[in-house]
Amino acid sequence: MKGLIRKLKNAVKKEEEYIEKCEKYNKDVDFIDDVNISFDDELDVSAKTVNGEIFLNGKLFDEGEWDDKMRYIIHEVTHCFQQEAGKVDGKVDKDNYLDDDNEQEAFRAQISYMADHDSPEELQRYLEQLLDHHDIKGRERREKIKELTKDI
């Protein structure tokens, strides 16, 4: 597993979204080398970041495609930058999750990565699943898709 994590870290250093975050937060691309990344079979979400440490759901290790692992790392390392910069005030309320500025920034990075590596159909399917999961419908749904994809 350590070999996979090393490969993921080396690969993320070459990704445009990660490099842009390094520039925004004034960090070297080697920042990720000092971020602890582990797989957790008991995780109740796909991924999360706690105190600058990234946890990926163990199913991603067993079943997930390379791009799935990478998109979650892109998202979660954005939270590492945010946490180190003091931009995180605590846990995000689930009802307002996709309205949180930090979550939006992380999702935009993830979606930008997906736009570069996945088909438009896969990206659309992901967005639909994300909005279904957060029970966002109607006009709010259309606005949220525009919000999350505005930089693509």
Secondary structure: elements and pairs:
Elements (H helix, E strand, L loop, with lengths): L1 H11 L3 H9 L12 E4 L6 E4 L2 E5 H5 L3 H19 L16 H17 L2 H14 L4 H12 L3
Parallel strand pairs: 1-3
Antiparallel strand pairs: 2-3
Produce a short descriptive summary.
With 152 residues, the protein is mostly helical.
What this model shows, in words?
This protein has helices spanning 2-12, 16-24, 58-62, 66-84, 101-117, 120-133, 138-149, and strands at 37-40, 47-50, 53-57. It is mainly alpha-helical and 152 residues long. The protein has one domain (2-149). Strands 1-3-2 form a three-stranded mixed β-sheet. It is globular. The termini are far apart.
The SS-based structural class is mainly alpha
Number of helices: 7
Query: How many domains comprise the coordinates?
Result: 1
Low-confidence stretches: none
Give a short account of the largest sheet.
3 strands, mixed
Order of helices and strands: HHEEEHHHHH
Total strands: the figure is 3
- The mean pLDDT is 90
